[in-house]
Amino acid sequence: MTSHSSENASFMLDEDTLHEECGVFGILGHEDAAALTALGLHALQHRGQEAAGIVSYHNRRFHSERHMGLVGDHFTDAATLNRLPGDRAIGHVRYSTTGETILRNVQPLFAELEVGGIAIAHNGNFTNGITLRKQLIASGAIFQATSDTEVVLHMIARSRHSSSSDRFVDAIRQVEGGYAMLALTRTKLIAARDPIGIRPLVMGELDGKPIFCSETCALDIIGAKYIRDVENGEVIICEIQKDGSITTESIKAENPQPERLCLFEYVYFARPDSVVGGRSVYVARKNMGVELAKEAGIEADVVVPVPDGGTPAALGFAQASGIPFEYGIIRNHYVGRTFIEPTQQIRALGVKLKHSANRAMIEGKRVVLVDDSIVRGTTSVKIVQMIRDAGAKEVHIRVASPMIYHPDFYGIDTPHADKLLANQHENLESMCRYIGADSLAFLSIDGLYTAVGGKPRDPKAPAFTDHYFTGEYPTRLLDQEGESNVHTLSLLASNG
């Protein structure tokens, strides 16, 4: 296997937002596999900006390029793509939720087994990954990375099945949590999704060749056709035959469960132009603003989004309330996500580097700031002050999702529970004083469900994964048993 890589030290600017762990893309049988994979990863860049990697297969060899940084920094030149020959490839963009930000954790991860080589890329997190890792180490396994993806490679290696695809299925049936996973062997592209479909994964087609990726926007960028979502608990195996034809096999879940997509895909993570679970992300976010205006209307002169995540919801809020929408905050899209070796002074200026107040739209006005979510609240404090400094008469914050009370263990990088704003204040009034706003309101859980799915939450059978709001985790959390930051108490009534 040939491999090239690079690594830089970096610093995170946006520490007060939630982050998705990663995005995946894979294609089989297309002569431009690596280039198409790079384009697909570019479309998925919002899902992870720490690192990117692609593995291809050609002429009996796997080829790997893994780098710290953005896709555009490493996978746009011909020299790099020429080092990734072949008509089959998988790729990955990463934001770490498990494992350090170091090169050996960058995916796709690769292993050479007696049944042949296999590369794996996955989005999400195993809730029993630590438990399985300890068991594997106790039985002699040696780990090179701290990412839980490597657990799957070890389990594939230890499986007694004769084919790589059977070993893959055997391995993933033993992991728990939320994941969308791709594997590449010499002849196969394999896609798998967790039993309740927490993480999204779609199937597409370009020139008759199969594609799997995290979001439909990655299909759109290369002109591919959307076929369907990979079902929860499903494994799809696409294989190139000796005559060049491609066969597709679907293995359904042994014990089917209702799908429960992560609500934060709609609130924040997915790109607005994607369709997730058959629903337009943009429309869902706009609906959140509509519901928010119904629940927490306010007399004001202008509705201003906190860009970019708050923009669709702000549009919905403005249309439903009749208050004019204006771009009162301008985002600098060229700051980038990281600084190299920043000083403390630069760190303190983080928000001002990314956002500037548009004084002409704010001065002397009662402003409604619409944001998609609030995590720690530190960014909200700075933005409210920025709006006041620009001459706003009043500043009212409206959040297009409920309060976040609980950490996530399925692939979202969330702070410990005691670091979340909702858990640091006794009530909404205290929270509002901390942020410095004249009023503060969050969308209710029923309002969010109505915006995304068309009807309120059914407490007996929730249609989505919503534990960060409610405390009701959809699976057992084997790695977290006994930890104080796991909540079983529902806080549905504490929305403020």
UniProtKB/TrEMBL annotation:
State the UniProt keywords alphabetically. Answer: Glutamine amidotransferase, Glycosyltransferase, Purine biosynthesis, Transferase
Q: Does the keyword Secreted apply?
A: no
Catalysed transformations (reactions): 5-phospho-beta-D-ribosylamine + L-glutamate + diphosphate = 5-phospho-alpha-D-ribose 1-diphosphate + L-glutamine + H2O
Any idea which residues are catalytic in this one?
22
Q: What EC number(s) are associated with this protein in UniProt?
A: 2.4.2.14
Q: Which GO terms describe its molecular function?
A: amidophosphoribosyltransferase activity
Query: Its annotated pathway?
Result: Purine metabolism; IMP biosynthesis via de novo pathway; N(1)-(5-phospho-D-ribosyl)glycinamide from 5-phospho-alpha-D-ribose 1-diphosphate: step 1/2
What GO biological process terms does the UniProt entry carry, in alphabetical order? 'de novo' IMP biosynthetic process; purine nucleobase biosynthetic process
Q: Which residues form the Glutamine amidotransferase type-2 domain?
A: 22-241
* Highest taxon, organism lineage: Bacteria
State the protein's purpose.
Answer: Catalyzes the formation of phosphoribosylamine from phosphoribosylpyrophosphate (PRPP) and glutamine.
Q: Which family, according to the similarity comment?
A: In the C-terminal section; belongs to the purine/pyrimidine phosphoribosyltransferase family.
Report the PANTHER family cross-referenced here.
Answer: AMIDOPHOSPHORIBOSYLTRANSFERASE (PTHR11907)
Give the protein's recorded name.
Amidophosphoribosyltransferase
The organism's taxonomy opens as: Bacteria, Pseudomonadati, Pseudomonadota, Alphaproteobacteria, Hyphomicrobiales
